[in-house]
Amino acid sequence: MKLSSTYIGIIFAILANFSFSILDTLQKTVVTYHSIFQILLIKYFFVLFLSLFESYRKKNSGFYKTRNFKLQIIRSILSICEAGCFVLSFKYLSLADTHSIAALAPAMVVALSAIILREKVNLKIWLAIFVGFVGVLIIMRPGMTIFDPKSLIPLAAAFFLSFYQIVTKKVSQNDSTETSLFFTSIIAIFVMSFLAPFYWSPILTLSFLLFIGVGIFFSLGIYFQIIALSYTKASIIQPFHYTLILWAILLGYLFYNDLPDLPTIIGASVIALSGIYVLNKTPASN
Questions:
Q1: Which of 38, 87, 198, 266 has the fewest CB atoms below 10 angstroms from its CB?
Q2: Binning pLDDT at 50, 70 and 90, where does residue 261 land?
Q3: Dihedral sign from CA coordinates of 50, 51, 57, 58
Q4: pLDDT reported for residue 168
Q5: For 25-29, 130-134, 137-141, 216-220, which range has the lowest pLDDT when averaged over its residues?
Q6: Which residues, including other chains, have CB under 8 Å from residue 146's CB and lie 6 or more apart?
Q7: Mutual orientation of helices 5-33 and 243-256 as an angle, nearest 10°?
Q8: What end-to-end distance do the CA atoms of the chain give, in Å?
Q9: Whole-angstrom distance, CA of residue 39 vs CA of residue 191
Q10: Judging by beta carbons within 10 Å of its beta carbon (0-12, 13-18, 19+), is residue 229 exposed, middle or buried?
Q11: CA-based angle 266:267:273, to the nearest 5?
C-alpha cells in the first residue's frame, strides 16, 4: 500500500525527533568531559557539511548568497544561544526534565508570533499557552525546597528556540534551507573558533567517537526535518515534537538510570496537551 505524503512526512518527523533524542543522550555524556564550545564547534561543522550536501543535491550553486544578511546573523546567534543552553541543561538536569521544560517552545512560538509578527491569537489559545506555563511551574516548583535554579536553563533554551523559529520563518521567505544552514554554520564556526581554544579539553579515542556520533545524529535530525517538511505542512508534524519527552524518559532511564518524578510527569503532560491544542487551533499553523 502506497503511503500518502502526509504519512511519509509524519514518519520522517518521528525519525527526526528520535535522532535528536539520541543526540541529546550522547551530549549528556560529552558535556561531562568537554566544554560546550567544543561540542558546538563540532556540531556546526556537520551543519556546514549538510548545507553543502543539500546545495549539491538541489543543484543550488548560489547557496552562499542571502537577501537578508542581518537576519541570518541574528538567526545564527539565536541558534548558538539555544544550542548552548540545551547542552548546558544536560550537564545539570536529566534528559526528561530538560525536554519537559523545553517542550514549552512551540507554544512560545505562537505567543511571540502574536507579539512580534502581529499574528492573531484568540483568548482560548492564550489560555492554553498560560496552562503550558503552569505545567512548567509544576515541574520547576519555585518557592519549594526542591526548586533547582538550573531548571531555568532549558526554559531559556526554549525562549531562544522560539525566537530562532520566528526569525527562520522570516528568513525562509527569501532564502532557501541550504542557504540558512550555510550561514548558521559559518557564523557559528567563526564564533566557536575564538571561544573553544580557551576551554579546550583533550580529545581521547572515546571522545572522538562521541563527537562523531553527536555530529551524525544532529545532521540526521535536521535532514529528516527537512524531508518531513517537504512532504507535509509544519502544523501537521509539530505535535510530534512532544515525542521527545517520551524518548527522553526512556533513554534517560536506559543510559543514566534517571526516572522523572510524578510532578515532572504531570507537568510534562500539561505542557504537551496545551501545546498540541495551541498548534491545532492556531490559524497561522494550518
A1: 198
A2: confident
A3: positive
A4: 87
A5: 137-141
A6: none
A7: 40
A8: 27
A9: 13
A10: middle
A11: 90
Residue 286 confidence (pLDDT)? 41
Q: How many angstroms separate the CA atoms of 117 and 170, rounded?
A: 10
The rounded distance, in Å, linking the Cα atoms of 77 and 195 is 14
Torsion, Cα 62 65 68 69, to 10 degrees, reads 150
Q: What nine digits make up the cell of 100? A: 519537559
Rounded-to-integer distance, Cα 111 and Cα 201, Å: 40
Q: How far apart are CA 277 and CA 203, in angstroms?
A: 45
Quick check: 43 and 83 in contact, CB under 8 A?
Answer: yes
Question: Which amino acid, 264?
Answer: T
Q: Which CA distances in Å does 237 have to 53, 60, 105, 158, 229? A: 24, 26, 15, 18, 8
C-alpha to C-alpha distance for 251 and 264, rounded to whole angstroms = 16
266 Cα distance to chain centroid:
22
107 pLDDT more than 90: no
